[in-house]
Amino acid sequence: MLTFVIVAVCLVLGLFLLIAVLSKKMSAKASIPLFLLLAAVIVLVNSVTIIPTGYTGVKTTLGQVSETPVRSGITLKIPFIQSVELVNNKQQDITFRNKIWSETKERTAIYYENITVTYQLVADKSSWIFANVTDYENNMVTDNLVASSIKAASKNLSDTDATNRSIIEPMSLEMLQATIDKKYGEGVVYINMIVIDNADFDESYNQAIAAKQQALIEAETQAIENQKAIDKAEADAKVAKTKAESKAETELIEAQAESEKNELLEQSITENILKDKWIEKWDGKLPQYMTGDSQGILIGISPDKGE
Length: 307
Known about the structure:
- The chain has nine helices and eleven strands.
- By secondary structure, it is an alpha+beta fold.
- It has three domains: 2-87, no CATH class; 92-201, Tetrahydropterin Synthase, Chain A, CATH 3.30.479; 218-307.
- The strands form four sheets. Strands 6, 7, 8 and 9 form a four-stranded antiparallel sheet that branches. The chain has a three-stranded antiparallel sheet with strand order 3-2-5.
- The longest helix has 66 residues, at 203-268.
- The relative contact order is 0.07.
């Protein structure tokens, strides 16, 4: 803002002097102080530089770069001899939209695309960056460095992890930071973040995965059906076993009851009861033969003829 005001004052004074001289309303002698004032203002403008927040200044003297960067604020310089170049030390994003092909630890082809890298140039290294990196604004973080880092990261990961952003992104950041440090030295560029918008496998791999998943689904479905059949057979067998056990138990109970009944009958039948039963069943006929008590002689018994 201050620089703008000074430049505006210089333009106004210069225009005023030009009009005055051309219109001959001011003598050449009277215009000398104004010309001196204008020259002083111009010198003052070239002696002051304002460095905005988030930037550092790199002061050069006749092309010689100063090793110490200038912090934000107002700084003085030797007019027409020294100049101050601004170096952006804010976080900056650079996006690489081309596909980066790589492979996983399992040698599966995979690609990454729409990769955004957020980086920051360290303020204390601004003079070194300005002096040593050609077109540093575009060449500090290149697509080749990013591609190399992502490829190195993916080759250490399985197929599952290689597409997991929470794994591949921080690993790629670590690889990129190491590569940047190796190229420029530590503490020159800080990588804040890497965002990978899309990661996918080659189409042939996706088709193979889809076929495998379908086969797994079919196998799981068949296994469920087989298990259902086994469960039903086991259930039927248990029912049959239960029924057989129930029937056997019933028959056993009935047999025990019958046995107990017979035992009670045997205990309850006396000799008199047997005689009574025998009499009830006798048809009135005497046996034709009887056995003697002592000698076992058979005696024939004939019914009375006279009757």
